[in-house]
């Protein structure tokens, strides 16, 4: 288990760290409006991917995973539906008359033709992770280059690079899986979206607890204020993406309680590293990943880090409940959580227009979600296993705290202390992660 996760983390970690550093660089060297523009484009792209996948993609992953002999048929049905819906979504580009960013909806068929979800469902997580790496790195790399050569067209270059990267990787995946690149649209295929409506709502709710919250926040905050929100929420998505990699690597085994507990424990370790970075080494962490200009916004990152911890405790439920086909009950909790988060934001900004209220509302929503999930879907023993593990592992934060007291805050002490903290936690938890890896079909 550890070996597979290590390989996947090495690939995704490199890509995500590059994305954070690239955005930081562009925020410092480029124009604020350009970075905000990339954030708006990225938010719409993620919305498109969420709409195209909706619940049908999660259902397709479940069907492909559980029906290995007839997976091509399930894949064809899913892709036909995705492409059909994407063509309908292209009509939203008409809103570009009021906001040119909506031209991004013309890219919808490109995202629909992607078969990355099938790679994970078929047991090729490393290949899927390499594709994701290319899709993250290439557009941002060209974005950095454009800051020097075409500073007024950074967003245009980013969008163009995204189109080319998706097109090439789509071809690669179709050849790798030996499937068609494009399927003829069929309106009858859209029934799949109706059948999987609860899963679709879940997808949109998960989207909200990330970049989606910016769709509400942009109504109340300026472009300059939203830059920090985009950068920080992008980092939050990196954290969630790292956890998603673990889910994808072991999706076929996440009906087992022991596997789910191990995944939650790994997530808790990552969340503690995030929280410790913000609480113990705030100046180093913020300046390293986001820039010195955001050091005064420490509480923004504190709320975000606490959200990461709260999310980590029961995060395996997202995949487990889908595999167990408990979609409707799960959907109700997700909708309620988004409602709580939005309502809190609408109320709190009446008293404070501080940008920190964005991540505080995120924390409130994640907290409600975790509490409801624990009450309705986890036994008392399962809750105790996770909470007790969190409490015990949090003691390891004493190591970086002690290092800071003795040697003061610096880049060296930051990395050194958390490397040793990670090793300490791995030694403490090693037996929990030595699960036999089942051979993928």
Give a verbal description of the structure.
The protein has 441 residues and is mainly alpha-helical. It folds into two domains: 1-194, no CATH class; 196-434, no CATH class. It has 20 helices and no strands. It has helices spanning 2-29, 32-66, 71-89, 108-112, 116-121, 125-149, 154-177, 191-195, 197-208, 214-217, 223-249, 257-280, 282-289, 298-313, 317-323, 327-348, 356-377, 380-394, 398-407, 411-429. Helix 12 (257-280) packs antiparallel against helix 14 (298-313). The protein starts with a helix and ends in a 12-residue tail after the last helix. Mean pLDDT is 81; it is low at 436-441.
Shape: globular
Helix content: over 70%
Q: What is the β-strand count?
A: 0
| Quaternary organization | single chain
Q: Measured on Cα atoms, how large is the radius of gyration?
A: 21 Å
Number of DSSP helices? 20
The total tally of domains equals 2
**Main sheet properties:** none
Uncertain runs with pLDDT below 50, 5 residues or more?
Answer: 436-441
Mean pLDDT: 81
Give me the secondary-structure category.
Answer: mainly alpha
Distance between the termini: 17 Å
> Beta fraction of the residues?
under 5%
Question: What key phrases describe this protein's structure?
Answer:
441 residues; disordered C terminus; globular; single chain; mainly alpha
């Amino acid at each position: 288990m550890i070996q597979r996760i290590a390989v996947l983390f090495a690939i995704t970690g490199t890509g995500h760290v590059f994305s954070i550093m690239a955005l930081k660089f562009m925020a410092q060297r480029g124009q604020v409006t350009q970075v905000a523009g990339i954030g708006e484009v990225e938010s719409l792209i993620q919305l498109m991917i969420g709409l195209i996948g909706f619940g049908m993609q999660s259902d397709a992953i479940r069907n492909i995973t559980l029906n290995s002999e007839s997976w091509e048929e399930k894949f064809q049905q899913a892709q036909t539906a995705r492409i059909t819906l994407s063509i309908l979504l292209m009509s939203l580009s008409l809103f570009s008359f009021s906001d040119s960013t909506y031209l991004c909806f013309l890219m919808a068929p490109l995202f629909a033709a992607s078969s990355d979800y099938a790679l994970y469902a078929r047991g090729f997580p490393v290949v899927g992770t390499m594709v994701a790496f290319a899709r993250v790195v290439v557009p941002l790399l060209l974005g950095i280059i454009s800051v020097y050569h075409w500073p007024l067209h950074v967003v245009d270059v980013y969008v163009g690079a995204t189109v080319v990267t998706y097109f090439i990787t789509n071809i690669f995946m179709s050849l790798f899986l030996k499937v068609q690149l494009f399927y003829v649209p069929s309106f009858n295929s859209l029934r799949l979206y109706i059948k999987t409506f609860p899963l679709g709502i879940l997808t949109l709710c998960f989207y909200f607890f990330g970049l989606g919250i910016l769709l509400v926040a942009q109504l109340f905050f300026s472009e300059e204020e939203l830059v920090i929100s985009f950068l920080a929420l992008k980092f939050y998505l990196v954290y969630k993406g790292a956890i998603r990699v673990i889910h994808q690597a072991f999706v076929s085994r996440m009906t087992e309680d022991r596997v789910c507990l191990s995944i939650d424990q790994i997530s808790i370790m990552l969340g503690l590293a995030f929280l410790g970075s913000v609480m113990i080494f705030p100046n180093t962490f913020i300046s390293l990943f986001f820039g010195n200009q955001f050091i005064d916004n420490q509480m923004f990152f504190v709320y975000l880090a606490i959200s990461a911890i709260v999310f980590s405790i029961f995060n395996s439920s997202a995949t487990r409940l889908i595999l167990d086909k408990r979609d409707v009950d799960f959907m109700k909790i997700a909708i309620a959580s988004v409602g709580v988060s939005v309502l809190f934001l609408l109320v709190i900004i009446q008293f404070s227009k501080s940008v920190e209220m964005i991540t505080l509302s995120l924390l409130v929503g994640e907290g409600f979600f975790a509490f409801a999930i624990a009450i309705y879907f986890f036994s008392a023993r399962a809750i105790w296993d996770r909470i007790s593990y969190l409490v015990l592992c949090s003691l390891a934060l004493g190591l970086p705290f002690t290092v800071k007291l003795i040697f003061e805050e610096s880049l060296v002490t930051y990395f050194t202390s958390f490397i040793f903290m990670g090793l300490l936690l791995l030694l403490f938890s090693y037996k929990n992660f030595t699960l036999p890896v089942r051979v993928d079909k």
